[in-house]
Design brief:
Length: 355
């Protein structure tokens, strides 16, 4: 069966999920960047465009400052807007981004009587995104120095935050990263659900579009006891790379702790989601591990219904994982199917009220 998760059709749930790869504490740092540089440059509107490893736009953060007059006095209203599904970028902006990438430095393009200016933002020698603003004059040498200084502080702090949320062995995001962002991730899914209910023709999500799976390396303690922790660590690294090769770049993969991993994916239906997680299982099963031969994983997954608390979704996936272990390991079970078959009993817990 062919993988039904395609990028055809806009907006795409896969592109939406791809935007979620940037959901981390660094979002607050991005806001701070715009709130800092705007006033320093005397600019009312600034933007940050986050990119993936292939320089594709993941999402945008726009900061605007408006002078409002109330009862004879003026005050500045500060506003931040996050666009998590950047479907269209103007030709001028796309051309500007390309110039910045090719020249590896800031560039400007004339738009009417104003200049559209873009600065590249790097982190760990990779392009993270672009800082963009528009105004009626060139950047002065002093302003250029200020921008570069602030961007350097930003990238250093970004790298620090990113490192604190990464597992040092595998390079994956860690349990802290997952737990600290589950609520925000679910808020985004809930907002998508509410939007699709109000505008069905523009629906990009339903409760079955996102799936959360807990994966566990079978008999990992025995591997450590028999071959030592160094070989155990090598197994975890190789399992990580194999899982990454079985998933899309837009899918989220975490090391949850020990030999456990958590994957969050987008798929059109249960059949497609099952195929993805089965691909993960078989990719591990068929690989010839040095010294060990064959290693297997077990998994349990559940529909990531945005109306159900994320902690409950984790509990459901964990219950399905234990059922897979009890059934003999080296298999992936779906929580909802186990409930329908009477193997597991569904426990009602809290849900999210959108209104």
């Amino acid at each position: 069966m062919n993988d039904q998760r395609s990028d055809s059709g806009l907006p795409s749930i896969l592109k939406k999920l791809g935007a979620m790869t940037a959901i981390r504490d660094t979002f607050m740092v991005e806001q701070s960047l715009l709130r800092t540089l705007g006033p320093l440059l005397g600019i009312l509107e600034t933007s940050f465009y986050r990119v993936d490893d292939n320089a594709n736009i993941l999402r945008a953060v726009h900061h605007s400052r408006k002078v409002v007059e109330e009862r004879g006095s003026k005050r500045i209203v500060d506003n931040i807007e996050e666009v998590t599904n950047v479907q269209h970028v103007s030709t001028e902006l796309n051309n500007l981004f390309e110039s910045v990438r090719l020249l590896d430095k800031s560039c400007s393009r004339k738009i009417g009587f104003e200049l559209l200016t873009c600065y590249p933002i790097y982190g760990d020698h990779q392009l993270l995104g672009y800082f963009v603003f528009q105004r009626d004059r060139e950047t002065t040498p002093v302003e250029d120095a200020i921008i570069h200084g602030v961007l350097e502080v930003f990238t250093n702090y970004f790298a620090l935050l990113d490192s604190s949320q990464r597992d040092q062995l595998t390079g994956l995001f860690n349990r802290y990263s997952l737990e600290s962002n589950l609520d925000r991730l679910w808020s985004m899914l809930s907002a998508n659900k509410q939007s699709s209910d109000q505008e069905p023709d523009l629906a990009i999500n339903d409760p079955g579009s996102y799936w959360l799976c807990i994966l566990d390396v079978d008999h990992f303690k025995k591997i450590n006891d028999s071959y030592g922790h160094m070989i155990g660590d090598e197994v975890l690294i190789m399992v990580t790379r194999l899982l990454q090769s079985a998933l899309r770049k837009s899918d989220l993969l975490y090391r949850f702790g020990g030999e456990e991993f958590v994957a969050i994916i987008a798929a059109n239906d249960l059949e497609s989601a099952t195929e993805v997680f089965e691909r993960c299982r078989t990719r591990i099963e068929e690989f010839d591990f040095p010294q060990l031969g064959h290693v297997t994983i077990s998994g349990g997954f559940s529909s990531a219904d945005p109306l159900v608390l994320p902690q409950e979704i984790m509990h459901r996936a964990d219950s399905a994982l234990y059922a897979a272990k009890d059934a003999g390991r080296n298999r992936i079970f779906h929580y909802g199917s186990l409930v329908e078959q009477g193997i597991l009993q569904e426990i009602e817990t809290g849900s999210i009220d959108l209104f």
